[in-house]
């Protein structure tokens, strides 16, 4: 009888059997279960949901959303420093900070690997969902849309980090040479973006709006989330009309009044929130590994490791009166919103407030796996994408959406006029609105600012190299000549 690797809880699902030649893009097997039994046990609505819950759960891992992801997307940029103690490298976070990562760096490997683990779970779900004939067809269709949205999100992470990567679009057959090549041969960046677009268009057609979900299902991918992500995908390709079309299709959302409340527990699933990584997975008590602890203040009266600290460059870049500065940065010696007094003797002068969870006003109790949700897509970013697309295309309302974001931050309407000045203003708003939301590094790269921005931060950005991170050496070795390294590594 045919066997597949899958745990009973479906919290982690294997992509390949253990004899596959490429074990890098693979989830370790945990248990054998006969496929016929699987299609019996899980052939119902709850069983169908379990396949997709496994994909969501992937984002809870330490490397997926916390340490390595912060290293590549934040500590590399001018918004953040490594933090912690000078003698604590965080394995390679000093290299993230200095732009000296290489193909053997752990952060490079973990981000690559964990996204493919999630993609493997999506492919498992997409393989089995159509075969669950005792589950409601409408539920299966929606779950298929969720799986495609999540797969697209993970490929978006990969293509921004590494450029062209293998497109693994189905569960590979271990004995198939063609499928082995599928897992090893890199596609072009354009091909990856096209694959993402196809998945998101399918998700848009299948998913309900946020208002169409029961309260118990909040946090699942929605039609609005798929439109917003596709707008962002088009933003990275300079497809301004696509950005306009997709961002205006994001309806039913608004800005919350209090910017600081967005990252508190009361701000979860707000009218501004389009998609969040939720602080629980297949196990309701499971949280996001190390997100709070790895970024908490370190040293005297501290509560964490102290990594990924706001830079002086970021702290000094805000306009006077911008409420986002204090909502984003914890300063040594300050009294926080929940009454906690931060010792002036902590190891670093600044910490990331968006990662903070209160132990008196919220639910933090020192657990490694915290319940804090991570905001991935917000309506404020949709407005900023609208402004950027209008400015770059020369048509549409630039200042309207831009000023909505500024006004919420306590600032007056922009005084910028003309395309060049407005471009500078929009980029500044993205920096301040989205600080520590995993966008700054990618923004300075996609807009061609990276060399000058990093030079001002005292770091050398090598054009033709640093636009991408290296492909992990482990994968290059396993590819055995079928995959090439990124330039400069």
From TrEMBL:
Compartment(s) of residence: Cell outer membrane
Pfam families according to UniProt: SusD-like_3, SusD_RagB
InterPro entries per UniProt: SusD-like_N, SusD_RagB_dom, TPR-like_helical_dom_sf
Domain RagB/SusD intervals: 272-489
Signal peptide extent: 1-22
SUPFAM superfamilies to which the protein is assigned, alphabetical: TPR-like
Keyword Membrane found: yes
SusD-like N-terminal domain mapped to chain residues: 107-235
Example of a GO cellular component annotation carried by this entry: cell outer membrane
Alphabetized UniProt keyword annotations: Cell outer membrane, Membrane, Signal
Similarity-based family: Belongs to the SusD family.
Name listed for the protein in its UniProt record: Starch-binding associating with outer membrane
Organism: Flavobacterium omnivorum
């Amino acid at each position: 009888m045919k066997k597949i690797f899958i745990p009973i809880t479906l919290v982690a699902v294997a992509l390949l059997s253990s004899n596959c030649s490429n074990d890098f893009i693979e989830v370790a097997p945990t248990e054998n279960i006969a496929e016929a039994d699987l299609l019996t046990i899980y052939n119902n609505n709850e069983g169908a949901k379990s396949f997709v819950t496994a994909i969501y759960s992937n984002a809870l891992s330490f490397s997926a959303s916390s340490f390595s992801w912060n290293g590549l997307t934040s500590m590399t940029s001018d918004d953040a420093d490594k933090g912690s103690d000078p003698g604590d490298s965080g394995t390679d976070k000093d290299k993230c900070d200095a732009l000296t990562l290489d193909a053997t760096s752990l952060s490079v490997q973990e981000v690559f690997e964990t996204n493919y683990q999630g993609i493997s779970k999506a492919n498992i779900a997409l393989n089995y969902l159509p075969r669950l004939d005792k589950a409601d067809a409408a539920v299966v269709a929606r779950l298929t849309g969720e799986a495609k949205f999540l797969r697209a999100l993970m490929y978006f992470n990969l293509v921004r980090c590494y450029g062209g990567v293998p497109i693994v679009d189905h569960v590979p057959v271990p004995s198939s040479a063609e499928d082995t090549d599928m897992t090893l041969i890199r596609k072009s960046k354009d091909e990856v973006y096209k694959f993402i677009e196809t998945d998101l268009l399918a998700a848009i057609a299948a998913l309900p709006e946020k208002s169409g979900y029961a309260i118990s299902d909040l946090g699942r991918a929605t039609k609005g989330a798929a439109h917003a992500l596709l707008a962002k995908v088009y933003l990275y390709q300079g497809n301004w009309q696509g950005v306009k079309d997709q961002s205006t299709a994001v309806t039913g959302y608004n800005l919350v009044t209090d910017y600081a409340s967005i990252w508190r527990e009361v701000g979860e699933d707000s009218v501004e929130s389009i998609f969040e990584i939720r602080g629980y997975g297949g196990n309701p008590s499971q949280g996001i590994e190390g997100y709070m602890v790895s970024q908490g203040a370190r040293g005297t009266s501290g509560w964490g490791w102290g990594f990924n600290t706001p830079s002086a460059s970021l702290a000094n870049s805000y306009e006077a009166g911008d409420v986002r500065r204090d909502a984003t940065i914890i300063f040594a010696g300050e009294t926080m919103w929940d009454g906690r007094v931060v010792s002036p003797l902590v190891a670093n002068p600044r910490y990331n407030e968006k990662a903070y969870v209160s132990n008196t006003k919220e639910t933090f109790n020192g657990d490694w796996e915290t319940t804090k949700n991570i905001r991935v897509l917000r309506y404020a970013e949709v407005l900023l994408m609208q402004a950027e697309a209008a400015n770059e295309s020369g048509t549409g309302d630039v200042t309207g959406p831009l000023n909505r974001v500024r006004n919420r931050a306590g600032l007056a309407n922009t005084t910028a006029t003309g395309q060049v000045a407005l471009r500078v203003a929009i980029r500044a708003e993205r920096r301040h609105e989205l600080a520590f939301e995993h966008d700054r590094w990618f923004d300075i790269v996609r807009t061609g600012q990276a060399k000058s921005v990093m030079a001002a931060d005292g770091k050398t950005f090598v054009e033709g190299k640093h636009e991408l991170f290296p492909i992990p050496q482990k994968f290059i070795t396993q590819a055995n000549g079928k995959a090439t390294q990124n330039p400069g590594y």
